[in-house]
Amino acid sequence: MNDATTPWVDPELIAAGKLLQERGLVAPDRTVAGLAEVRAMTDRIGAFLGEGSVPLKDERDLSLPGPHGQVPCRLYLPDAVERPPLIVYAHGGGFMQGSLNSWDHFLRDLVRQSGVAALSVDYQLSPEVKFPVAFEEMVAITRLAAREGAGFGIDPSRLAVAGDSAGANLALAAALAMRDAGERALKFQLLIYGCFSTDCDSPSWQRFGQGAGLSQAQMRWIWETYLVKPEQKGDWRAAPMVAELKGVAPAHLIVGSLDPLLDDSNNLVAKLKAAGVPCDLTIYEGINHGFIRYGRLIGTARQAIADCAAALKAGLA
Question: Which active-site residues does the annotation give?
């Protein structure tokens, strides 16, 4: 029985949740668990979701210069594509967890299906390193790709920024910084269930941010952990939705219908359209936050990856 109070949930999402529970792969509450435990479980879940993932013929780890020291990155080149375009990718994890390895399988799928190379950025995490360091590292690596990307074997005139969740926040902020600097190489953004504002009280937060998964309490804690002081909640580098968006690169957004960040995506698209920025948003029914890495278990996630790959291909053609 589906009525207005009980939204439809994808049965494959429920099955995936049960499977992870049976395997003991349940993310601890990051507001109470130790940092090392939270990060280790993120990586264990990532390893399970990535089982059977086949590496591309050309994947390599790079150490690239950033404003706060060297930034570890991983480059994925599509097979048999000469000088492909490139996405500079920031993984999710609330600015405080996530790693290159845990996003491997998803980025391989995206690269294979789009023919677009990916550069995954292992930006520094909070609370050891706070705002705006992750933002500054994402901007620096994007600029470096525009300047020196030919040396990676890619076409540096066709760049995109991309990310999921906290990573989509960093991607949009980097796109704004590129626009402000008059950089023309950035042609596209792929923004996957991003947190684009510091608002944790919107209707979608109140509706979907109460239980397991991404909760209001967790999101408030994430902002407290990431920012140095509360006033930074109004800084566009932390909350890129507050920026003037005119002239930023075109964007493809996706989000699940059960995601507490649903309003962030809807509101950003409305603001982008009002600013004359070409954009579109796909809302996947019955799916919650964090689904993009679940392609092995959930058909909707596989569909979303295919849709993102098609949007990237078109946006960087």
Answer: 165, 259, 289
